[in-house]
Design a protein that fits this description.
The chain is an alpha+beta fold and 274 residues long. Helix content is 44%, strand content 14%. Bound molecules: zinc ion. It comes from Psychroserpens luteus.
């Protein structure tokens, strides 16, 4: 066990305090960490930020590494990543809905290094990624957290209308095979080499998409996602107002004139050719 306050010269901050609340830059701190796990984190950060179009960040906030409780945190072999701050841009993990491409780009590369990654859709992890190496890097259909990730990228990166429920079934398998074919990756996804290739290409595609301008249609989709997460009592009336807006003749005319999503195919071709 050793103490660190940065990883690859990126300062590690803590922002879960009354005067440094979640979502702020927080303050630099020392964190106890297992030496081997530290090496994995260094490699992971190296790869994430070498690929990320925003480059190396100025600060990463963490909810903790060593925490005196049972589980991987108790050994200093788990990392809770709250937010990443670049000079002109910030990714706070609770903002997943509004920064899906950047979020999933980062997560794709993290998954190449950590067998366990718990994300936004994994209960209790809306405000941080939990990363640890207690299991090896691969894809198991029975893993809820891995299937959640797979369904999230199928839907939000590759545009497949899959249900995100963490349960693998015929629908998830079919869309996965479609995407693997498009990316020229051998199936099955459960073979480690195939899975690693999928993570790598998906990370690059997601990062490329994150650079493109957000269209009004995407903003509407985000709004719909947020509405669907509302408590039932409020959801009904907000959803009604939303549908009335979208179904209005003039709104529909305007929406039809807006260019649809980014050109996914050309992004994929670009990544495959590079
Ligand atoms: Zn954790």
């Amino acid at each position: 066990m050793k103490a660190i306050n940065s990883i690859n010269n990126i300062p590690l901050h803590y922002a879960r305090l009354v005067n440094h609340p979640y979502g702020t830059l927080g303050e630099q701190r020392n964190f106890s960490i297992d030496s081997n796990f530290h090496e994995v984190l260094k490699d992971a950060f190296d790869e994430v930020f070498a690929n990320c179009p925003l480059g190396k960040p100025e600060v990463v906030t963490t909810a903790g590494i060593f925490v005196n409780k049972p589980g991987q945190h108790g050994h200093g072999t788990a990392f809770d990543l709250d937010a990443v701050f670049w000079k002109d841009k910030t990714l706070i993990t609770t903002n997943f809905i509004h920064q899906k491409e950047l979020y999933l780009g980062i997560e794709s590369f993290l998954r190449k290094h950590f067998g366990i990654v718990l994300n936004y859709y994994y209960r209790g992890h809306e405000d941080h990624w939990h990363l640890d190496t207690s299991v090896s890097v691969d894809y198991n259909e029975s893993s809820k957290s891995e299937t959640l990730y797979l369904q999230m990228v199928l839907k939000y990166i590759y545009g497949k209308p899959v249900i995100i429920d963490g349960l693998s079934g015929p629908q998830t398998r079919n869309y996965t095979n479609e995407v693997f074919n498009r990316l020229n990756i051998n199936t099955p996804i459960t073979t480690k080499a195939n899975y690693l290739k999928f993570l790598d290409i998906t990370g690059k595609v997601a990062f490329k998409l994150s650079e493109e301008k957000t269209t009004p249609l995407q903003l509407l989709e985000n709004l719909e996602t947020v509405i669907n997460q509302l408590p039932a009592a409020n959801k009904h009336v907000v959803k009604g107002a939303f549908n009335t807006f979208v179904d209005n003749d003039e709104t529909a005319t305007w929406l039809n004139s807006v260019t649809n999503h980014h050109d996914l195919d050309s992004v994929i071709d670009h990544v495959l050719a590079s």
